[in-house]
Amino acid sequence: MQQLGVNFQQTDEDRPKQVSEDAVFYGKTILFTGTLHKVGRKEAQELAEKAGAKNLSSVSSNLNILVVGEDAGSKLKKAQAIPSIQIMDEETFLSLIR
Question: Domains plus CATH for the chain?
């Protein structure tokens, strides 16, 4: 397989990300919805991971934080029905991680 170009050496990207327990979103789950204007969705997800969060793809009782952008839609409505979910805007999210 190595002769065909398969790399058996673990790279930094392959290793699990180490996050400090005092990271702002350590142990939290997060979801982004709507249009974000300051950062792209992928960048926001990466920033959240670096701050200790795990990104989710849907609203459920397992979700801790929903970050809403413009035209948030049905995910915002679902999250508002679950009292344990913290809802914040993009500005608040960015201020917490920087």
Answer: 23-97 (3.40.50.10190)
